Amino acid sequence: MYIRKQNYYSERRIFRYVTPFDLRSDLIANMRKMAATQRSGHPWGRMSDDEMFRSAKLYNRDYVTGEEGFNLAAVLLLGKDDVISSVCPAYVTDAIVQRNDVDRYDDRLMARTNLFDSYEHLVDFVQRNLPDRFALDSGKRTSPRDIIARELVSNSLMHREYSSPVIARIVMDRESIRTINASRSFFEGRMRLGDFTSMPKNPIIADVFVQTGLAEKLGSGLHNLIKASELYTGREPEFSDGDLFRAMVPTAVGYDASEATQRSHDAAKRPTVEPSYHERLAQIIDDELQRHTIITAPQIARISGFDVRTVRAFLNRLVDQGELAVEGRTRGRRYRRM
Q1: Distance CA 94, CA 268 (A)
Q2: Are residues 145 and 229 in the same domain?
Q3: pLDDT per position as a tens digit, 254-275
Q4: Three-state DSSP class for residue 71
Q5: What is the pLDDT of residues 99-147, one digit of tens each?
Q6: pTM for the model
Q7: 295 phi, psi to nearest 5 deg
Q8: Which domain holds residue 288?
């Protein structure tokens, strides 16, 4: 609340003893190359490193205290991992998939490195864990999944309040993908297009993302997400801001956010719990073995909607327990009753 009331951006905090040796030279060169690729004749392409740092406002002077040096934005964008963890120890993006194992996770990525590499790793993680669906935009084939991945990740990295100890999260379940991160907001509540004015939480980081092509102009992210979400599932995403910024994009066709929220509340009131995925898988396997004498992991995965690796691990566990017999090896394995 204090940060929100002050005209203060934590990304501008100066670290007097951070030197160019604490930054990665390959990232500096890549930042220049990305900007030049994004726009022909970009001035960063002709500047020295020092000139580019000052132009991008990564090296600046605090006219209140007189301090001069590299700021937090510079460290997060270009710093070595040990320097980043030293000046911003709470910085991490925890990305998890919770479709089958809702108590823990099916897959996880914890990104603690610089923002450029974190962007690539997180976008790749989301793309790997979301199915790509055919869609046409103005008569041209497009990938709404890729747009959703890029916009959610860039928004989380650009508009996060890095001075907060709150861990930023990306959560992917059976019905949606959600992001949660600390925010320096000037508005609280659900966000609707046309009812709020876009304001950068980290204008220096946001500008570097725009200049290097990792993001578009300010305010375009929500528009892009809404359009991509409608192409992906036919439904709109939801956004809310406050001390925490939350974004939710439906990923299941026919998913309704309000209904899902009500279901979660109703479930919390019920004394019983839904069957675990082990129980559901066991029932599906039993049903299929009654219809067929032989089953395979891909066959059960198609019917159940679970990942093939999850199904295969469960089938192998039944083999170890003496409930099923196995024929063949690796991918060609077939399973039958003992």
Answers
A1: 25
A2: yes
A3: 545 455 445 444 544 444 333 4
A4: strand
A5: 887 778 889 999 999 999 999 999 999 999 998 887 877 778 889 999 9
A6: 0.72
A7: -135, 160
A8: 277-337
